[in-house]
Amino acid sequence: MIRNVTILLAGVALVMAFALYHLKYRAEAAGRTIASLERSIEREREHVKLLRADWSNLTSPGRLDVMARRHLGFKPTMSRQIITLERLASLAPEREPDPGLYDAAAFEQLLRRLPGEADREAPDSDALTSLLIQLRKDAAKSGERDAR
After folding, report:
1. Model-level pTM greater than 0.70?
2. SS3 string of 77-100?
3. In whole angstroms, how far apart are CA 139 and each of 28, 69, 124, 144?
4. In Å, what is the CA distance from 60 to each residue of 24, 44, 54?
5. pLDDT in tens, the chain (148 residues)
6. What are the backbone dihedrals phi and psi of residue 38, each rounded to the nearest 5 degrees, phi first?
7. If you write DSSP's letter for every residue of 95-123 in order, what string do you get?
8. CA atoms of 1 and 99, how far apart (whole Å)
9. Domains of the chain by residue range
């Protein structure tokens, strides 16, 4: 009888040792996974910090002012440009705007000037914007030549 109990207890001890080893292995694997995730989170936090710094740089008023002047031809607002609402109402035109300004044919001609855009259904907005900026620059240059 004692022999059977001893064999049974030895079997239980082996099963418990195996279970303990298995739990230890799973705990270590979970610890490695947690450490890996923590490293990944820290890298992402650093990346977010860099992106926020970059965004702050890109949206700084000084940079936007320089870019607006360079690419859009904007100039600083002068005090003589600031007027009251009543004065603005008196400057408004008495007639409706010229419908030719919004003519679809004029827009189509503008689209035909875009390389490779004439036969596409939806024009590339970046290319259209670039063309409009270029047209504005060309108009400004021709206006400077006419002023001389």
Report:
1. no
2. CCHHHCCCHHHHHHHCCCCCCCHH
3. 71, 16, 22, 9
4. 54, 24, 10
5. 789 899 999 999 999 999 999 999 999 999 999 999 999 999 999 999 999 999 999 999 989 888 888 888 888 777 777 777 777 667 766 655 555 555 566 666 666 665 554 455 555 556 666 666 777 677 667 666 655 5
6. -65, -40
7. SPPPGGGG-HHHHHHHHHTSTTTTT-SS-
8. 110
9. 2-59, 66-147
